[in-house]
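Quick log. Single chain, no ligands specified.
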Amino acid sequence: MNVQQVTELELLARVERCMAGERLVVEHEGKRFSARVQHVGATGVKVIPETALRGSHGAPGDMDGFMVSFGDIREVEIDGVTYRWQ
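-> predicted structure:
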C-alpha cells in the first residue's frame, strides 16, 4: 500500500474530487472509523460507515449516510494510494 503524507489543504483538494464509494478515514465526535463517500457537498461529505455496509444486501442508494465536515477527514484512498493528514 502506498501512503503519502499531505497537508490539510492537499487532503481537502483530493476529497473535493472524490467520487461515490471511495474510502475515507473520519474522526467524528471522538470516534475514528473508515467510511465510504456517498456524496461530496459544499460544506462536507455525506458518508456511510463501513461497519454499516457489512452484510447489507439493499439496492444502491438504500442506505442513508450522514454529513461530516471536511475537517473531520483524516485520510482518503484514491486509486490505491492513501493520502494521510496528520
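DSSP finds two helices and seven strands in the chain.
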